[in-house]
């Protein structure tokens, strides 16, 4: 049989080109990452611009031009990404010597919008790339987000507020980068697949004592995180109940303001945007550390001193009246610590107790010492997490006495660490009485 004639190189290239035109060219990962986060930036910007434009069209900003409203929308977009705005004295220009205050109070509920948009983008980038190529998509994504922040910071400076281009370009990368990386990790299923490093294989090569120490440390961190998250959940529940009890007071403030349908909608959206902040304030309140709304004010179960407040409906739900027994709410973090101690017993990773019991023969001494250490370390872990949460929910409105808003960061962390430590120690000692092994039938 005669061999088939091979197609000439030109014909083969032409057929390959036709097939490529039919199936399309794959988008480079760098461009795909850039496209994904460009969508996230634009969509989050639209969600900010639309409410402000609705208020402007309804006559809410009669003395402002559309350009001024758009700049205010851009400043809001930067603010929800954590970029501080330097407020200037009205009518004095943009001279730094005319600084009136710093607006750096971040509505964390609105920050979740770009975070989850970037989380979705991170999943899509991870789905389109191999482990050793993922950095290309993430680099492209963060590069375009940096440019979006830089471009926004360049356009929105005016004679009322300004920010630096460096902060406008870099600070939004924190929430965007966290969203992209966590989303990519969610899609990859493990950090090993995400970064190409097998932690389990590395741990298996270490000594037994190192693995025991690592297991103990990891269990302690999980216990402290559990205590903090349970305290956060209890704070959210308490805030919800309190809002329900004060719903009439909140409605009265709405009626006195008379903002109109669009104004009411925007005002409600703004209050929903600070709900995570309010939960963290409630957490600070139940620990005893308390929070402030303006210089000189203190709101805690142990002391309440409040000055004049702005006409914000949700502030009508602040604790008031007879607070004689308010200290009882400080038992909630102790309960969260109790559950952390119970969790620690169930995971069975108290290798420090095993180590110390070999050196101290008296069991009640070794058990007491290991339990105290456990409570302290779990409490400190919860306190460190509290430092981050309290700091994120604090800030300054940059106006008058409202330059201090939010929890007392150090006091809240100290109180929470002590309460969780006590609860953890009690929970670890008492929880064996709550465990019941099933009876095995013969």
UniProtKB/TrEMBL annotation:
InterPro entries: DUF6350
Segments crossing the lipid bilayer: 37-57, 99-122, 134-157, 216-241, 278-302, 323-344, 364-388, 409-430
Keywords linked to the UniProt accession: Membrane, Transmembrane, Transmembrane helix
Protein name: Uncharacterized protein
Pfam families, per the entry: DUF6350
């Amino acid at each position: 049989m005669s061999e088939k004639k091979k197609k000439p190189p030109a014909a083969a290239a032409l057929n390959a080109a036709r097939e490529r035109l039919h199936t399309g060219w794959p988008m480079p990962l760098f461009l795909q990452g850039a496209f994904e986060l460009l969508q996230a930036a634009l969509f989050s910007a639209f969600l900010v611009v639309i409410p402000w434009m609705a208020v402007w069209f309804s006559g809410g900003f009669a003395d402002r031009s559309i350009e001024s409203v758009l700049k205010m929308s851009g400043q809001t977009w930067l603010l929800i990404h954590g970029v501080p705005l330097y407020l200037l004295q009205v009518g004095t220009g943009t001279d730094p010597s005319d600084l009136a205050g710093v607006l750096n109070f971040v509505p964390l509920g609105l920050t979740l919008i770009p975070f989850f948009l970037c989380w979705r983008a991170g999943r899509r980038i991870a789905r389109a790339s191999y482990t050793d190529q993922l950095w290309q998509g993430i680099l492209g994504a963060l590069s375009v987000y940096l440019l979006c922040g830089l471009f926004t910071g360049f356009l929105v400076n005016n004679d009322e507020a300004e920010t630096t281009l460096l902060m406008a370009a870099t600070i939004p990368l924190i929430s965007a980068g966290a969203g992209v990386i966590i989303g990519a990790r969610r899609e990859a299923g493990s950090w090993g697949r995400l970064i190409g490093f097998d932690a389990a294989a590395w741990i298996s090569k270490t000594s037994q004592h190192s693995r025991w120490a690592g297991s103990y440390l990891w269990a302690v961190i999980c216990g402290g995180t559990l205590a903090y998250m349970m305290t956060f959940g209890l704070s959210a529940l308490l805030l919800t109940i309190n809002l329900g009890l004060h719903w009439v007071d909140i409605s009265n403030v709405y009626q006195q303001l008379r903002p109109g349908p669009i104004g009411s909608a925007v005002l409600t959206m703004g209050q929903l945007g600070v709900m995570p902040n309010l939960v963290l304030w409630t957490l600070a309140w139940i620990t005893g550390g308390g929070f402030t709304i303006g210089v000189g004010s203190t709101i805690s179960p142990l002391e309440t001193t409040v000055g004049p407040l702005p006409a914000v409906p949700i502030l009508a739900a602040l604790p008031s009246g007879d607070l004689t027994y308010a200290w009882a709410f400080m038992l909630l973090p102790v309960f969260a610590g109790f559950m952390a101690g119970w969790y620690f017993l169930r995971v069975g990773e108290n290798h420090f107790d095993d180590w110390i019991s070999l050196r101290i023969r008296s069991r009640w001494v070794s058990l007491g010492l290991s339990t105290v250490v456990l409570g302290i370390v779990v409490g400190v872990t919860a306190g460190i997490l509290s430092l981050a949460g309290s700091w994120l929910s604090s800030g300054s409105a940059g106006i008058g006495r409202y330059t201090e808003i939010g929890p007392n960061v150090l006091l809240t962390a100290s109180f929470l660490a002590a309460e969780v430590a006590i609860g953890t120690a009690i929970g670890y000692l008492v929880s064996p009485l709550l465990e019941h092994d099933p009876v095995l039938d013969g």
